[in-house]
Hints:
Helix content is 29%, strand content 31%.
Amino acid sequence: xxxxxxxxxxxxxxxxxxxxxxxxxxxxxxxxxxxxxxxxxxxxxxxxxxxxxxxxxxxxxxxxxxxxxxxxxxxxxxxxxxxxxxxxxxxxxxxxxxxxxxxxxxxxxxxxxxxxxxxxxxxxxxxxxxxxxxx
Length: 135
């Protein structure tokens, strides 16, 4: 399988990031051992303390998993290279200036941002504004 190299130019990354708010509410939780049956995480992170899961809130509720943080999931649709420099810093600074927390996960093709659910629409607006100002 051939890998396609992602974009590394910061100007291009910022002006073409095209943030998309995915439908639904997402939560962060942790489990000991494997992913529980019926749970479909969108992110897993193996940590010393347990397996962190980011999953739809409805799956967490159905499995009886506890969580505190309910997030909206934003995908930056530009294919960013894993070695790109400055993209995370630029959008994190813009979101921080708006008082928005952001938890970032880098996938092979895209960056995924988890922001407070009730402010997810505002976060998309902040990112779209950053893209316009970067053009």
